[in-house]
Amino acid sequence: MIRQNLHCHTDFDDGADSPEAMILAAEKAGLSSVGVSLHCPIPGEDDWCCPAENEPQFLETMHGLRAKYRGRIEVFCGLEYDTRAARRSVPPYDYIIGSCHFLGGHAVDNTPAEAEAVIAQFSSPDRAAEAYFAQLAALAAFDEIAVVGHFDLLTKYEERGPLYDPSSPAYRDAAFAAMETLNRAGKIFEINTGAISRGWRTTPYPSPELLRHLHSLGGRICICSDAHAADGIVCAFDAAEALARSCGFTEYQVFDGQGFVSAAF
Ligand SMILES: [Zn+2]
Ligand SMILES: [Zn+2]
Predict the structure, then answer these.
(1) What percent of the chain has pLDDT over 70?
(2) How far is the centre of ligand 2, averaged over its atoms, from the C-alpha of 174 (Å)?
(3) Global model pTM greater than 0.90
(4) Ligand 2: distance of its center to the CA of 15 in Å?
(5) Domain residues of the chain, as ranges?
(6) Which ligand is nearest to the CA of 228?
(7) What are the tens digits of pLDDT across the range 102-149?
(8) What are phi and psi for residue 60, nearest 5 degrees?
């Protein structure tokens, strides 16, 4: 059983519930540790990111909750960095997840209509995918980033009608190249179930094809729910583990307070 989730959101950003509600849900679900990952402040993006002026209060809140729940569940304080934000050092956070949510001025994961607008800015879905994966690959140069967030986020709306063609050579080449670059830099790839709890997908991502490629590279994974509400704190973790196993993985990475270590399924 997976005993840790490092990726979730609260009412300090675009989540529905308080940090304490997320911690209590994690404890109830049987996790031994949980990390809350704040959407990094970005000027002009206060509707989904934490406003910069609220960040000190978030850190103070998490510090207090870590002490309050010591002995019951271990609490970590993480940051979900976006490629549009200013580069960060790790402290005062425990770890940083690196993600790309924007392409050409639009969010790739906000609504299907906005995802279509992203593609319209490029000459084809393949060109948009190449631009997305190039942005993601650039995170390899950020030593501070431990985990790559939702690597193939472009497929969030795939089940509502395909926007991209992950089987096209151009898409695959771009995705594989980014994966290889990030893996060489030692990044961990999360299996993310967040689109399931939000009703967009029935399966976790990355795709089996990408995960098999990662496994062939000797890459590392962790399992994250990216929950935006307490009831999704361990959404589809069984499916995520089954997906990982089916792609050859026998272990996943957990944060132990100092760094990432392997745990067997
Ligand atoms: Zn994200
Ligand atoms: Zn997230």
Answers:
(1) 100
(2) 23
(3) yes
(4) 9
(5) 4-264
(6) 2
(7) 998 899 999 999 999 999 999 899 999 999 999 999 999 999 999 999
(8) -65, -40
Q: For 145-160, b where at least 16 C-beta lie within 10 A, e where not — what string?
A: bbbbbbbbbbbbbbee
Distance 70 CA to ligand 2 centre (A): 25
Cα(11) to centroid(ligand 1), Å: 15
Class of 4-264 in CATH: alpha beta
Residue 104: the pLDDT is 87
Ion ligand 1 contact residues with beta carbon within 5 A: 99, 149
* CB within 8 Å of 107: residues ≥ 6 apart: 101, 114, 115, 118
**Ligand 2 center to 9 CA (angstroms):** 6
Q: What is the pLDDT of residue 26?
A: 98
For residue 106, report the distance from its CA to the centre of ligand 2, in Å: 17
Residues 6+ apart with CB under 8 A from 191: 204, 205, 206, 211, 221, 222, 223, 224, 240, 243, 244
